[in-house]
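Quick one, probably user error.
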């Protein structure tokens, strides 16, 4: 199965946020991590980052998941935000925005616990209202869409479309199984589709949508 890559321009960002989920092993998220100008790490992910031979520029969160070794090693990089109304990923996101860093790649936000995965995916559409953001996993990447748009793709690439509003009518071009005003009341309804060419166009009013694309093609 060939690997699909649009080039690292799609995944590269000056700012990468590393969350405390499953640390990436795929070449694409790792390349994004190694090419980042700055790494903002949620507190529980510091030791995972160190195991990959990398150090964060900042460690953000309530710091309750920080090991003593990491606390000592990163003592000059800690940003403690103890409020419990948001999770550490949101705290890291807010920290980035406060510094004007609004072109973001998020890694390590899925895996390990399904409830954390679902929560982090739902946050993406909120983040997209204030920043340009992608979430990379070991199998592909999520793009939140708040308005209609065209996404780069590749023939044979697997594409899934999820809607956060069941009354939003979604039109799509460039997919094997076209969407013609479909209202996605359940997340499975537009999953496991397939791109036909170099782009997928999604047109909708309302939304938002969350689109997953695989690195691999058939």
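Nope, works fine. Designed sequence:
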């Amino acid at each position: 199965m060939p690997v699909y890559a649009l080039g690292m321009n799609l995944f590269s960002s000056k700012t990468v946020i590393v969350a405390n989920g499953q640390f990436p092993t795929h070449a694409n998220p790792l390349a994004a991590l190694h090419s980042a100008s700055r790494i903002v790490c949620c507190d529980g992910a510091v030791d995972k980052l160190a195991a990959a031979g990398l150090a964060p520029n900042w460690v953000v969160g309530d710091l309750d998941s920080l090991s003593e070794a990491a606390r000592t090693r990163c003592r000059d990089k800690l940003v403690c935000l103890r409020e419990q109304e948001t999770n550490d990923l949101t705290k890291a996101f807010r920290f980035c925005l406060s510094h004007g860093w609004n072109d973001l790649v998020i890694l390590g936000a899925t895996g390990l616990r399904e409830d954390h995965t679902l929560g982090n995916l739902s946050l993406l559409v909120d983040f997209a209202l204030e920043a340009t953001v992608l979430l990379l996993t070991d199998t592909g990447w999520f793009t939140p869409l708040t308005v209609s748009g065209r996404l780069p793709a590749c023939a044979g690439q697997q594409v899934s479309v999820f809607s956060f509003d069941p009354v939003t009518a979604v039109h799509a071009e460039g997919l094997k199984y076209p969407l013609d005003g479909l209202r996605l009341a359940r997340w499975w309804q537009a999953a496991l589709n397939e791109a036909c060419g170099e782009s997928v166009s999604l047109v909708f009013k309302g939304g938002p949508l969350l689109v997953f694309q695989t690195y691999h093609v058939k």
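Confidence is low (pLDDT under 50) at residues 1-7.
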